[in-house]
User: What shape does this take?
Amino acid sequence: MTVPGAWYLVLAAILFGIGATGLLVRRNVLIMFMCVELMLNAVSLTFVTFARMLNDIGGQASVFFILVVAAAEVVVGLGIIVAIFRRRPEATADDLHMLKG
Amino acid sequence: MNAAYIVLALPLAGALLLVFGGKRLGDPLAGWLATILSFGSFAAVLVTWLTLLGDNAAGNGRLIEKNIFTWLPVAGLHVNFALRIDPLSMTMALFVTGVGSLIHLYSIGYMRGDRDYPRFFFLLNLFLASMIVLVMANSYLFSFVGWEGVGFCSYGLVGFWFDRESAAVAAKKAFVTNRVGDFGFMVALFLMFNHFGSFNYSTVLGTASSGLLGGHATLNGTFATGLGLMIFLGAAGKSAQIPLYMWLPDAMEGPTPVSALIHAATMVTAGVYLVARSAPILHFSHSSQWVIACIGAATMFFAATIACAQNDIKRVLAYSTLSQLGYMFMAEGAGDYTSGLYHMINHAFFKALLFLGAGSVIHALHDEQDMKKMGALRKYLPITFPTFIIGYLALSGIPPFDGFWSKDDILASAYHMNFFLWLAGAVTAGLTAYYMSRQVALVWFGKARWSEARGDSAHAAVGNDPAAEGSTVAPGGTGTEEAAHAPHEGAHGEHSGRPHESPPVMTLPLIILAVLSTIGWLINANFGGFNHLEKFLEPVFPTAIAPAIHVATNTKWVLGIITTALAFIGLFAGLRTWRKVEVPALEPAFLAHGWYIDEALAATVSGPIESGADAMAYELDARGVDGAVNGVASLITGTGRQLRRVQTGYVRNYALGLAGGLAVILAYVAARVGGA
Amino acid sequence: MIAALLATPQPMSVHLAHASAWAVFAVGAVLILSGALGVVLLRNPVHCALMLVITLFGIALEFIDQSADFLAAVQIIVYAGAVVILFLFVIMFLGVDRRERFMREPFRGQKPLAVILGLITLAEILVLSRVGNWSTGQHGVAGDLNGPGENIQKLGQSIYTRYLLPFEMTSALLVIAVVATVVLARQQSRAPSELTKDEQAGVAAAAADKAEAKR
Assistant: This one.
């Protein structure tokens, strides 16, 4: 209990920022997906930190659900990506701009 | 007095029967049905008239109103469909139904064989019903219904042979020109409603019991002038006065009975009736009386000059009608309504007679209308010829035929108003005798020129005789009736080229009208207490609104003698001169072309007016109005086109927007929390 | 190290020593940040996936540091064992040579804007965490973290009692996701003429892009 919670929170914030920036910068759909995972993990870390700081098991329970949902999300997301890019030479999000106005 | 309903009901029923069952009735039956109903209407008018004569209560000023139903029960305004039975409406109804019935009878023979026979009689009956509405209505608004009804029937009958382009054009011209007059009528209606709050003749014009103008002691002079001139504009449109006269000569495109009924005897006198009806209003506007008199005189003289140089037998009569209508308006402008109406009745007799006679001639010559191709017909048409001569003498103002009496009255009143009005009338009387003599000489006397033109090959040449087309058609556009009258032609195909007298159904009306033209002086002759019409109309034109016109008896004698002398001079000059057929010096082109008025109008319309309209259409409308509308549209389109770029279709761009939004929200929350 | 930690049958409630706690935090932080930067910056998707594994390990470390022992284990099993493997599988399936072309950025300013926005968001989160007092003072209803009993026992009690309904719902969610993925992946290949209009357009657009890339 010696490392103050604020450190963890700052660490999580930085991780979240990196993930968000990567999501905006990268064009490969798979890597964008990974960046989403980074952001999710940052949030998980925050939850765990708050659970410790507030002496509440609820934070850890939330992380448990995040893990489950993230797993489902990855499964479905990757399935969609496979379905889309099976016929496409490149795996970039920018190739999908048929909704252009 | 309930016979008044029958007056209107019979022709209306006839029109309904003919429009639905006309085809089934077929050729002669449809005509007989219409004619019988028309005569029935005339009989009903006679009964009504006799009842009115018997109803001698002076208190109501010989005025009876018969309500049919309430038409417009709008708050404060109740317009009834009601018939007004008074001396003026009875006078009109009598000669409208009387002459109308005779012309119905004549048409049975004339229209024989036309493929649209039932439609013709449907329109005739509808016309008669509309005309009755017009003259017997109890309010200006109800009269206007009839006014438009006769306008429609006129349109339908002028363009009766609508497959001929000139007829369709003439019908359109008549209709459009009439719209200008109708505009005046409608403005008059609005003014009237604004000022009196009613359209009823009784309210607007007042009755003998309620006083003049519905209790208004007097009428503002300017307002009376405006109202009077607007009424006169409507009248000028219907009665073909300057400047709205040009449709009437072209209206001769219609079948000849139509010309006789609508464009000589009845419809064109609707304006005369309307002005006479509005006498109490005109009484308060001396200037509008002057305008009416002067325009009447101008039309009278102007039309007479044109008639001198026309070759079409019907166009001569059409211009003559214009001229005679001018006489009537001059009389009304001079305040002598009785003379105007008297002349109108006489004119209905002799002009209908002349038109029907001309129709008989046209019929005999297989639809030839060029007088230069007639001549020596007196031997071939033994009944038409004497009746036509009677009409001719009546129109020329030769005593004792009826035209003399009414014309004499009018000229005396004109002299009382202004010497120059009288002078114009007297000169026109001479001109009238001259051009009618020319017509008589060309049609009835001289050598027979129809045989040269038609010959034995008449039937082969029918309708496409280039000489006939080229030389006869007057510039106004009236052709002959031959092209569209083909069925008619076929009905007489077994005859040779020799002219033949018309059947009895056509000659009988001629005889009756000739008799009426001869004894017309019984109605209102200027001597010996024969002034029945004047006495009958007295309640309508009391001295308060139509002061008696006093011309010294000696002066009257002098004026009458001068006018009659002028008429005789014109008569003999015409007959002498036109033993020859071609006298170019007396047929100057500018008269033959009607003073080039039509051409000038066409040039004006196709010149400045059309370019003005073009400017409006292609510059102001296309660029100004459309530009504003399209500008708004393209502004929106352009904005949308620019905004569309936001929708790049790239998910990462949208995510960027999301991140931007997150940053803004966080900043807001930070500011709130930090502030708190 | 992690494996050793997991393998050691020592009581998990025993807190690491003062110095070692800081050391674990530092090591975890370094792993997390370097891995995250690797994911964002490396070009080869395979490398990115491997860097992601490093980050996830770092997270697990921080979990252990904060006495979330069960979550740390699940983190490694689920993420490193399943998710990243799935990523790698898809990368291999689609072809490792599919690199993104950084040269062709359709929207100029996307990258700098993204970096700037990322920094701004980070700064704002930090500021918020400093200035705000987010605790209400009310005690949670899920149970104490530091009470008696093992961490896994307390977590299990909370999930299977208070959060039973969400737990069942997540299990249903997982089943649905599995079925959906099977349906998505089962798509049979068709002849080009059988493609829908959009798909044909997509193929054509991709071919055009390829041609452009070769120039």
Summary: The two ends of chain B are 99 Å apart (CA to CA). The CA atoms of residues 290 and 634 of chain B lie 59 Å apart. The first strand of chain B starts at residue 64 and ends at 74.
